Predict the 3D structure of the following.
Amino acid sequence: MDAPHFACDAMLGGLARWLRAAGYDAIWRADIDDWELVRQALRENSVLLTSDTGIFQIGIVRDGEVPALFIPTGLGTLEQLRFVLTELKVDVGEPRCMACGGLLVEVAKNQVRDQVPPRTLDWLDHFYQCERCRRIFWQGTHWQRIRERLREVRGEGDDPAAGKRPVTDSFEDPGHSLEERRAK
């Protein structure tokens, strides 16, 4: 079975980013209206995630033509992620670009030399590029913190051996692109 794709309503931007970190493609736009979101989910064969009960009154959602999951209000972002993973019986996979959901592919160090801070080049050998937005990512402390949060979502806490399977170490920092660091 293919991994599900998600269409998140305007209230679930944080969940969309964490679904991407957990290995799922998740679209989100702050300005999307209900009907546009439903049409996009139908077109892209995505599972609609929403905290808006009104969406379930739209015929194709109500009748199950567009698969949808209601995300209870009052949950924090990581609780929302745990809820989705549990309800849909899916697990954490290889991380995707947290900005756009694109796949991350390894690129040669010499290809990113001009796009990565010099100190990072000195201490790391593995770099990744998003196939969609072309951002460059690397292994670092930011992804280690993200990975730890994903372990907590899976009920593993500080011990990766306590869960069903260890979270892969393939990608360490899909949240630190050079553009994002320069913007700070």
